[in-house]
Sequence to fold (138 residues):
Amino acid sequence: MGMLKEFKDFAMKGNLVDMAVAFVMGAAFGKIVSAFINGMVMPIVGVLTTGIDFKDLKIVLSEAQLDAAGKVIKPEAALMYGDFITVFIDFVIVAFVMFLVVKAMIKAKKKQEEVPAAPPAPTKEQELLSEIRDLLKK
Fold:
């Protein structure tokens, strides 16, 4: 039972829960970026590059072998560099957005550190001593 309680305490710590939420949000953000790249950016790039579909870009190492009926006996071996280009663009966009987020967080943290803390209010004893001092001055 002790180990189960220790695990529960560990799993419920704020940092671990925050990290799990960040991981899920990051995965969802990655899907959004992939959908944006595949659905909006790459078609525009394809039109600008005279209709080339990047998903079809490949270097064929060996052609597919077919039998007499047209059934594939051995599939083609190809380097699919078009998919790599698309994934690379995904990565660059995600990395840039993460850079902006971290930069904004660092800037906000610096501003928070620069704001001087208000001096603590005097304690009751300090107030009484100040009053006694003022009375003695008179």
Remarks:
- The mean pLDDT is 82.
- The first helix runs from residue 2 to 11.
